[in-house]
Design a protein that fits this description.
Elements lengths: L11 H4 L5 H5 L3 H18 L7 E3 L5 H10 L4 E2 L2 E2 H21 L7 E3 L9 E2 L1 E3 L18 E3 L7 E2 L3
Parallel strand pairs: 1-4
Antiparallel strand pairs: 2-3, 5-8, 6-7
Helix pairs in contact: 3-5, 4-5
Length: 160
């Protein structure tokens, strides 16, 4: 896609600092195969009979699912290894964060069924309001990255 904006730079020297094969595939071949299997099984569940694609807008609670899969790590949910499902969810969360923060285009393997006829969707995501530095027990409070609110004025339109 000619107007596609990706995280991977187009500059040859800069691309060498992101070793997709030697720094990812060569490190984790079996884990990545297990994650690809989760993609296949998820497609069969959410898009039966359709070509493989990530159906955005279905099962979007990545952070909650990551914690659930982490709490069951080492086990299985049916045929799916919990750690593989956790890794898939972590990749989905990271992909969506990068798209939002860097204005990246939707990947070729993703379809957002919430898109309108022009191929745009209205996304309303706001940064979480800062908490006080300490909670009621005197320790540091966790800060969420962002929270979704009811759509108001769209912050950005994403072309699909």
């Amino acid at each position: 896609m000619p107007n596609e904006k990706r995280y991977l730079p187009t500059d040859s020297a800069a691309r060498k600092r992101i070793p997709m094969f030697s720094g990812l595939m060569a490190y984790f071949p079996d884990a990545l195969a297990a994650v690809a299997e989760v993609s296949f099984e998820g497609n069969e569940k959410h898009n039966p009979g359709q070509p493989l694609h990530h159906a955005r807008g279905k099962s979007m609670d990545h952070a909650d699912c990551i914690v659930r899969h982490l709490s069951n790590h080492g086990g299985f949910d049916g045929k799916t290894r919990e750690s593989a499902a956790l890794a898939w969810r972590a990749l989905a969360l990271l992909q969506e964060e990068l798209e939002l923060d860097l204005g990246l285009t939707l990947p070729r393997g993703a379809v957002d069924e919430r898109a309108d006829a022009t191929g745009s969707i209205a996304v309303s995501i706001t940064r979480a309001k800062p908490h006080s530095e300490e909670d009621t027990f005197g320790g540091p409070r966790p800060r969420p990255l962002y929270v979704e609110e009811e759509p108001q004025e769209p912050l950005m339109h994403i072309q699909v």
